[in-house]
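Record now logged underneath.
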Amino acid sequence: MPVAIITGASKGLGRALAEALAARGWDLVLDARTAEVLKETAAALAGHGTRVTALPGDVTDPAHRSELVAAAWQLGGVDLLVNNASALGAEPLARLEGLPLDGLRRALEVNVVAALGLVKEALPLLRASETGTVITVSSDAAAEAYETWGGYGASKAALDHLAAVLGEEEPRLRVWAVDPGDMATDLYAAAVPDDGDPRPEPASVVPAFLRLLDERPASGRYGAPSLLEGR
């Protein structure tokens, strides 16, 4: 069975994607910081009959990243790495003049440095896979200027660029930066707690990710809304 590592997988988009892959027979290595929630997620996904390894921890910890890749190796390798874990930099979001620099450092450390660190750790196994794939979860804030989204958007823009360069440097792999669009997630609620407008559930955008895995287009940046519309 193919094997995927998914970070930030206890809830939201990470869990929804893990659920879809488990239903397709994928074996999974799942990461999240909250051990109890991650344990519940893993138990639910194991009901599909696939192997699920749940490893709570912080992706900024090099030892934890090594543990994730080692667990995937025990399951057979790494066919897909999904860098989904994200930090906002401030909760709720703040204008740049009020953005704590320690918060910005945390966003860069989680969203960029740790993501690259996990790619580097997994790269030998990804290269050994016939379908080695890296997905980095992006945001429209990486490409558009929205008030208060500067720190988070800057970190996602940096991640987008790393993904683009990785795609050039590793032509045998598929490397996709995917903007999932607006979703009803805890991350968004923490970012903008006063926004009560309804948003799509994360599961509604998962078919866009599955389309990429099925069709395997060239490495690059993709928007889930366009993929869902068939463009």
